[in-house]
User: Fold these one by one.
Assistant:
Number 1:
Amino acid sequence: MHFIFSDEVVLLFDFWSVHSPAGVALSVLVVLLLAVLYEGIKVGKARLLHQALTSLSISTSQQLIEETDQNSSSSDSPQVSRTRLRWFLCHFSQSLLHVAQVVIGYFMMLAVMSYNTWIFFGVVLGSGVGYYLAYPLLSMT
Amino acid sequence: MGHFHHVGMSMGMSSGDDNSTMAPSHHHPTSSASHSHGHMMTMMPMTFYFGFKNVELLFSGLVINTAGEMAGAFVAVFLLAMFYEGLKIAREGLLRKSQVSIRYNSMPVPGPNGTILMETHKTVGQQMLSFPHLLQTVLHIIQVVISYFLMLIFMTYNGYLCIAVAAGAGMGYFLFSWKKAVVVDITEHCH
């Protein structure tokens, strides 16, 4: 098994079989966008986590201030449950993003496994472009 | 003709060879060459399919033939993917804990004589023969092996098993990272 330049490729699904240079070019474009999306999801997950931590840290510190002022008892105030719900929703959406990341990562691995050199270039280029576009967004707050 | 089949079988995927037109969507090879030559017993599928007949899973003895076995394999793969996510997060936590302890150890600051900044070189990483580093190494090896197993399972192109990998990863991330994030939240406010 070795890398080949070929005009025919079957990628991932039965219906995705191309036999022409135009088809292969389109497949390379799709795979490229998939790789860009993968890098974007990685950055998106980190940003979601950062946003959740900062917003929820503000709300929990406010709760602490309120509780010390009011000298309240141990029962949960509505504020706490709202914070927990927000945290749950945030974490659930992060988990969905994680599933998407795992699936797209495996799809890219399987695309490279087709041993078609054009597809491989598409994956590598897409990863590079995705990293270039997405990672500056990581340090933005 | 036997040679032609042999060439076709050994390529196994879409190739630049004009003569062989393999249909990679076929999971069960219908050509008789597989029995006569015995070089490749089963073809590797190259597209996703849903099925539970004659599914080889990682090892030569592990073949799935019934729906019940597929259900068992689904659960096992699901748990393996969950364990992988948990292992990743446990390693992160262990690393942070061992590094934090080292950082605190090097904090002792200057004595009454005005001597400044004694052991700044100790903050960098772990010592090579320390127990935390050896534990991290062992866990790293286990993590690499499991990640390759999950990749190979996904490579069977079996729809049920792939869904099990993805769902297990999602569930594992949800369960273990929840705890980690809460812990991180608390510790990062104590600074």
Note: Residues 130 and 136 of chain B are 10 Å apart (CA to CA).
Number 2:
Amino acid sequence: MLKCGMSGSQVKVFGKAIQALSRISDELWLDPSEKGLALRSVNSCRSAYGCVLFSPVFFQHYQWSNSVKMNDNDLTVSNLNCKLGMKSILPIFRCLNSLERNVEKCKIFTRSDKCKVVIQFFCRHGIRRTHNVCFQESQPLQVIFEKNMCSNTLMIQPRVLAEAIVLFTSSQEEVTLAVTPLSVCLKSSSDEPMDLTSSVYSEMFVAPDEFDFFQIGVDSEITFCFKELKGMLTFSEATHAPIAIHFDFPGKPMALSIDDMLLEANFILATLADEPSRTSSPQSLCLSQKQKRSDRLGSNSEAGKNVTSKAPECIQRKVAPKRLYPKETLTDVSALENHDSPRMKRANGDLSEVPESSVSNTEKVPGSLNQRKLFILREIAHKLVWGRERERERIPSRQVEWHADSMEPDVGFDLTNHEIMT
Amino acid sequence: MEVVVQAQCPGPSLSLPAAGVSNMVAKLAKACTLRISPEKLNFIVSDKVANGGVSMWCELEQENFFSEFQMEGVSAENNEIYLELTAENLSRALKTAQNARALKVKLTNKHFPCLTISIELLSVSSSSRIVTHDIPVKVIPRKLWKDLQEPAVPDADVSIYLPVLKTMKSIVEKMKNISNHLIIEANLSGELNLKIETELVCVTTHFKDLGNPPTARDAAARDRDPAQMAEVHLDIRRLLQFLAGQQVGPTKAVCNIVSNKMVHFDLLHEDVSLQYFIPAFS
């Protein structure tokens, strides 16, 4: 259960966070906890993960609680598990400047009996706008990545990075960041040999003294996706806080983060591995679902500890599992400690079970082939095997109700959740 | 073959006009030819079928822009270099040079011939940032040079000064929604009309008191009736492409019409001269 409220200017920041996360994926998890409200998003090929955590102090008021249900003489404490389609929620936070001007207060609360999130804007002139967004029950994913353990950390003002970004055309998918203790270079990355039709190769050298914080432990050159960086950048400009970039060697995920008193944003991006026969798909991130609360009552803190106390990074290149899903998910339950798993080569089709953190209900990261199909199959199989209650396969729908003297009640419309439909 | 070009502070005077020119060219055609000779730089778009027969010739005197200009052509007698490149790439690269402290352009060969543009930017913390762009180019062999020479200025029936290009552009844009076929006509009394005709509607926009350039008036005084209109039927999209590229108003803009054959636009933007030829609708 979630209940929170914010002012007009806070809505702008909240909306910017949603817009930044929309660059990563078409789905958003709303994950309230005692630490605050987290918005999470993972892209379909698991190469980018974004999480923006708004602390309770960010809101004008913030209330959260677990829901406790009786189920066959068993008390189950479950989390909100709310997954929204970006298509439903992004239009609500579309014109942020006008929202900032017109909205005096915004309330967000959930109605778990109806699986809905209600977003209410109390605007000027007595206008109240209510959006009911249906959500899908789905446990949010979290990434396991210890950014403080990275050997290279850079902290830079967003404006400087924004100037660099202008250099690269939107047709370029990837950029390379090359660092040495003396210089930092951002350049366009391209595998194919140049010809007349290829785009411009650009590079920009930035002196170390332009960074707020500059610590380079190991010289490295990492290549990552440009799109997600841009998303993060627009968000950081709204928060006026410097961006910290944490990274190591190629292949290991990198983190872009903003740490403020009121919020904490982390974007974890996979980087291209430094293999001679490398292909363009970056390695997947290691993800886990939060512990299913029903399994262990009152052990929330323990679950939290379980997830984060593991060894820092988890670099795995997953191969398309060729087994049937139900069988696979059952084997996931085993507790695994091995985090020093070597990087697996995609080429030799290694099918060995990929180690993951020891949390039940772990989300298996799909292999690089046919990822979308596998992801969908897994979702369905998961539901079959674990028999989640009140599973909503229905398409989320959005209804807008206008309450004001002069306004007519408005339409309700359906939006398809294309993820399940394909 | 070598080109080394440098422009220095304050604010390299090259960037703005050249960026403007390459921007203009980028809107006209995807690929364009850059001709480098000891005194000038030319941007050339030749009249291929792909462009709809449109051609463009743009000239800049190098001494107006660069503090240092060094070039070495293919050979002593043919001291010129012809490069084919994508205009959009060049305009993007030059855009970053807007607040640059220094700019250097070099012809290099890094696995592939490139025009390397090095820009030195001055950042807030007073440390300089160096940005390099490598624009892929293709060197055009000498045997194709003859197709890329300056087109002859045609013997025009009417020459007239153009009205404010922005106004013209907004009118032509609206006309485009009605028809693809535009008629442009002008006379020696300073009148220019833009006409479109469909079954349902005819729209004409009249521009008056535009004035005619002196040379035209003298030749015409001989035998042409000042009120008589010379007209050309054009593809409206070609005209719009040309007008869309004009961001800044030119110092001088002349339109020469060869009845039923073509329209020739002759513009002067500060130190950059631009000529644009649109053939009649076939």
Note: Residues 258 and 265 of chain A are 5 Å apart (CA to CA).
Number 3:
Amino acid sequence: MAASFVRSCSRASRAITTVRFMSNVPENTVYGGPKSQNPNQRVTLTQLRQKHRKGEPITMVTAYDYPSAVHIDTAGIDVCLVGDSAAMVVHGYDTTLPISLEEMLVHCRAVARGAKRPLLVGDLPFGTYESSTNQAVDTAVRVLKEGGMDAIKLEGGSPSRITAAKSIVEAGIAVMGHVGLTPQAISVLGGFRPQGKNIASAVKVVETAMALQEAGCFSVVLECVPPPVAAAATSALNIPTIGIGAGPFCSGQVLVYHDLLGMMQHPHHAKVTPKFCKQYAQVGEVINKALLEYKEEVSKHFFPGPSHSPYKIASRDLDGFLSELQKLGLDKAASAAAASAEKMEPSDSSSSQ
Amino acid sequence: MASSLTRNCSRFSKAISVRLMSNLPENTVYGGPKPQNPNQRVTLTHLRQKHRKGEPITVVTAYDYPSAVHLDTAGIDVCLVGDSASMVVHGHDTTLPISLDEMLVHCRAVARGAKRPLLVGDLPFGTYESSSSQAVDTAVRVLKEGGMDAIKLEGGSASRITAAKAIVEAGIAVIGHVGLTPQAISVLGGFRPQGRNIASAVKVVETAMALQEAGCFSVVLECVPPPVAAAATSALKIPTIGIGAGPFCSGQVLVYHDLLGMMQHPHHAKVTPKFCKQYANVGEVINKALMEYKEEVSKKVFPGPSHSPYKITASELDGFLTELQKLGFDKAASAAASAAENMEPSKRDHDALKMVEKLKRAGLSFDLLAYNMLSGLFSDKNKADEVYELLSDMEVAGLMPDSITYKLQHYHVH
């Protein structure tokens, strides 16, 4: 008995000690009410660091609303990124440029409500952090304060970006960098074009990644670069790299939710599915089939059947209802109601026996 | 020739009749070269015709571009941007928290995706109850900024009927909504079915009729017993759209996420409405896919070569390695070099070919199966030269390539 007591004590103290150092939430959440906050459940920077050290790949997927966040949480994905890719996959624009900060914050909040375990990273959308370092810090603050995120991601490796990243880190906000193909810069890039394919570009990828590390980033996303370039950057950095279209030598991988699920089966969309993305399901097909079946069942008067028409009115009330309808002069309605009641209760005919 | 002229004329006049049916200007000269196809969008007239013929109208909710595209592709009649977004998209427990600005974002995304269904936008809680002018202002924004074709508002109190009338007079089509009105759970005491006693049942019919009187083109009946819905449907000239209201309505509506079984988490399973049929288990499909992705990344199986398409030419790579070394990144340089080798299985293929040579020199001959396998291997890597070499080898060995040989080559090389 004493032994088990000692064991539970040490377990408790272990929980207290480790949680305190690992969590990004205060140890006691007295105002949180009876709901157990479970701070040690949330993936933290330290856990990512450990995975990186052990060579275990980090998994990251984008989410934009409550259901997708719940799905990512349930599947045990490490990091949930509320990406500005929402502009394309949720809002249907052709680029990531049109989405505003207000819209991103709405997405962030919905995701925060759904994903309790993955680390939450919010993208800074185009136009909200490039003007000045002040603007960048203000935006990052809103993403954490109003969006409920744990960290932010920003694109690019120009000197002003490195400075911005540094200021955001100094403001106490964890930053994930993003180099290679940076979709917000398609204007200068001339489209969604892979980077790092020539010497200068390849060296730039490595150098900017290192500068971002120097600025205090905890991780860097490498997008659409040849695998050897990604391998070089991953090797040169102490922090983990998260790749997308960058080959298998990164410390982790990220994919867009809709792309990996095959959400858009429409031929128009099939041609814009990125070649580096594997479709792990054909959700678009499943949805299409379900909707067609619903349409068919409604059109043929099959749905709703009795099992999906659960609400009843007691026969006494029904009779009163029919009388009232007749008083109002709605005789046709009264007989329609009476007929339907009979149709819904096929046992009446046998009950008179 | 005369008959074809007549046919052309009648086709032309039919096109003119489209003008009367569409809710878009006939010519969209500013729309540019994209054909506007005004007769593609479902209109109130289409719905009226369906109702007259007794053909059930299908309605499903959508909240973003992909769901809108899905509804369009499936040929659903009406796409409702519901304030149910508050629950299924934003994860709140009720429909109350969503704001008009958030609804407008949903509306715009849906408008971008659904070109054929009639688009109806819900007026969210708190944006139309104060006064008729507030109601009209909100409805105007939903059409102007949200890109919707019509609006839906809840309730049948006198002020709501007045508001509905004012909105119709502003030129905006309105769908009414009676029975369980989720925005009113405060007075209803929860999501409780209505029309289960005489007074309530009569009220459902009366308010539906009042909304028709005010100019609504349709009324949603939510969570009422089927006989009550049947009475209302019979009493009205406009179509009723039911949800949890039995099979006697003029049409049906369901929430996208509910009908697709989007939420498989146990916590959500218990809040799936009993009147909703799950036509799929999308949540399960998604869960399975995400777990597989997680597994493949963790085991370093993804991305494989077929999902690592971006290449750097050998000369650029060499220059890159040199630059890295100049910068003092020797470890990085060797990582890059071995990565490049790893990604280029040509070394392996080259070894395979060399092995073939060795075995042939040793006097071993290959059968058709072996040649087919090698052919497939090389074709997969687009090694056209090696494939042709194999084919000539086979010829020398006196083997005829069969359909499988060609199929493998065709499948992979193309």
Note: The longest helix of chain B spans residues 2-21.
Number 4:
Amino acid sequence: MPRSLVGGDLAVPDMAQPYMKKDDDDEDVEYSPFFGIEKGAVLQEARAFHDPQLDARRCSQVITKLLYLLNQGETLTKVEATEVFFATTKLFQSKDAGLRRLVYLMIKELSPSSDEVIIVTSSLMKDMNSKTDMYRANAIRVLCRIIDGSLLTQIERYLKQAIVDKNPAVASAALVSGIHLVQANPEIVKRWSNEVQEAVQSRSALVQFHGLALLHQIRQNDRLAISKLVSGLTRGTIRSPLAQCLLIRYASQVIRESSLSTQNGDSPFFYFLESCLRLKGADMVNLEAARKITEMDVTSRELAPAIKKLQEFLTSSKPVLRFAAVRTLNKVAMTRPLAVTNCNVELDILLLDQNRSIATLAITTLLKTGNESSIDRLVKQITSFMSDIADEFKIVVVEAIRSLCLKFPLKYRSMLNFLSSSLREEGGFEYKKAIVDSIVTLISQIPDAKEIGLLHFCEFIEDCEFTYLSSQILHFLGKEGPRTSDPSIYIRYIYNRVILENATVRASAVSTLAKFGALVDTLKPRIFVLLRRCLFDTEDEVRDRATLYLQTLGGEVAVGANEKDVKDFLFGSFDVPLANFEASLRTYEPSQKPFDISMVSREVKSHPIQEKKAPGKQPHGAGATPAPVSAVVSYQEMLSSIPEFSEFGRLFKSSKSVELTEAETEYAVNVVKHIYDNHIVLQYNCTNTIQEQLLEDITVVVDAMDAEEFSEICSKPLKSLPYNKPGQIFIAFEKPERVPAIGKFSNVLRFTVKEVDTSTGEAEEDGVEDEYHIEDFEITAADYMLKVAVSNFRNAWENMDLDSERVDEYGLGARESLAEAVSAVINILGMQPCEGTEVVPKNARSHTCLLSGVFIGDVKVLVRLSFGLSGPNEVAMKLAVRSDDPEVSDKIHEIVASG
Amino acid sequence: MVCVFGCILRFHGVPAEERLHWRSFLVKLGSENLKGSKNEELHVASHKSVSIVYTLIGDVCLYIVGKDEYDELALAEVIFAVTSAVKDVCAKPPTERLFLDKYGRICLCLDEIVWKGLLENTEKDRVRRLIRLKPPVEP
């Protein structure tokens, strides 16, 4: 039971109003006990708490009013809160049980500040040792809510006693307090392990439940201990279904963590899960077990009983069980649709379920498990059902329809009709966008669907209220429309936008028209007439676009040598990732120097700079750099701002940071390798983790003896490195142009240390020179390869020159597994795996892996790797490379041969 | 995360800025689905990664929201505990007036059932004793 919550209550007035049946004359409101309640008056009433003769009934009423006010969102000023708190503590004098219970609640609600807590601790400590059990339980709960770590050690002894108290309410209070406290004070709570262990064996169901949750929290980082805990309890008798569910979760966690070494079916824990499926009269336990089994990587035979159990729950009379079952089956259907097909009859019935959430989950499950013949019926059913459900459910349905259509492309007609009729219905932006995106995907993947889909789009933009979607569709029409059998039919719809829409849409429509003019010669003269009309538009952008297209397409302004150059200029792709392009444009400052698109990085991969940063850990190195769109863009900006490196040209690639020190050493250093055509720049990110030291004049002495092709040309040392403020050292090397030179670099950090007085933060004047050895690292061939994915590998492969192909075979020797061999080769090449081929199916004897990338010099490379197992674990590999440059194909073979 | 929600609204683990969003989301959910709902009929929904179980008891809407281990099944236990406790305190499905009359008691029941987002007690008889500071009777 991990704690997910931090405190804080909020009350909002009138929450219960929507469905309050009001009496005709609103009498109820008038006679509400809180009618006309005012904070000031209630605070006056609270003075009764100071009476020497306490009236328990009256005081209880005042506390109730205060609680009501606080729950309604009323806040007390600091002074008011303190006054009320002090007054409330007076009430400990009363022996009235009802009042005492309210006092405990009131103190928790007031959350007194640390200087006030002291007032109430003695009363609470007294209650904690009281003979009255319930005083003890409540005092524990209040104390644990308001105290801090130092006070906790004082009451620890009592808490340990309370955990094993024979009164279950006291034990539960202490255990739940432990669950809350373990977050902030793990070391203290860990010491209660023995008592908690005893509580888990308690006869009380709730004490077991709370004990188990706390024991798991205490041991959560110790895998072996968890495994022991689970194996002990699965054999014993856990009474509470809630605790049983916890145990199921912990058991499945153990199975997951040890699944590498054993098969699921053999694990005793798996038998435990299966037995939980069969437990009588414990729906919650059955369902939890079924859910956990479906989440595991099990065989169909192992999965079947779980599915069967879920199937039974689909017809339960309890909506919660139906919901839980269908939600689980829905998840299973995403990865293993065949396993769920047996439940189709029950799912069909659920389509009529009164609870729309259940019906939506049923339909989306059916869409995943259904076969081609049932699609038309399903789509018909959904259509009648869509108007009843909220947008977020509709989006789920639309996405399910899209994947179904891609699975059964022959059925595109009915599904496109469904999507386009949904487009015409009421709905918010997110929903409409989901539909438009789905139709775009279908048109792109199913050629037959193109013309119908485009016409649906044309109808939609006639009446579309979302500028973003209109622009998106117009752009898409311009891309696909000219290549249809009769492009002229779209022109009317597009030109209507120029007449009827806002400036953004009009500008998009002008571009779309121009594309038709450029690509369809027969339409060109008519398009020109339309474009000329746009020259009188009220908006600059629209007129500018019209002028540009008319001048360039009409040949009045010469662009390039022929018509193809004009089209490339107007409509060609930028050949750089748009995110990088946008980031570069944002940092460009208008000056004499024009923006140079060739300086924009082509690397698509975006990895956050502080990838290693974990909570509680000191940030490493590059923390000083602001978070970028893509790391390489920000690196490019940072490096080009350093005069020494500004002439190096475009940054080809920046590696991930490589740690050069172990975790938690005095100085944390990692290196990022920046690759240029003729140079490399090594960026050492350093952090000083010793508070008592200031480092000055820090530099890295690099020995490039094992990297002959590199010669150091300049370095940028770091002036000073105060505690916990990361800094960077740069060293640049020259290397032969576009040659993927490799080598090993050994490094020593050299600096002057000065002692710092931590109380004043001032450093001593004199320092001592010192050195610190950090790890070696290598520049490998993979550093010269950019991971760039291709959307359709087969097309890309076939479009490459056959002459550039180089094929060879390699024996990789005995390997741990086929998957390990595949990932090793991918790492050596540093290329992007395509189409999910980096994943090797379990027990596979052979595997083909497709890789793509861009090699230094902007050479596109594609690789096909075919692996086979011979003998026990002997792996053989066939490597086929095609690239823009046959020499690079050879180079790839050299890399693999030497790797 | 559990939030119990009648005239009393409690959030645990929900950032302050998201609370209003939650409030309007739940009100909308209730207005779409609780109309004509039977007394204590259980409704269930999910929103992003959280589960929501809600019901109408007398004049009062009750919503319980949770995530992770507080899935729909665990929340059903919680809502059952809350409805039984409310009925027990009010002696019948409450009108708005009755609910407010018993406000103090109901606050105490909620404090016993859910404590800072963790389920602590589930049985109404036990809760009834606890709010009177009487020790529970174990079966």
Note: The domain at 601-779 of chain A is CATH 2.60.40.1480 (Immunoglobulin-like).
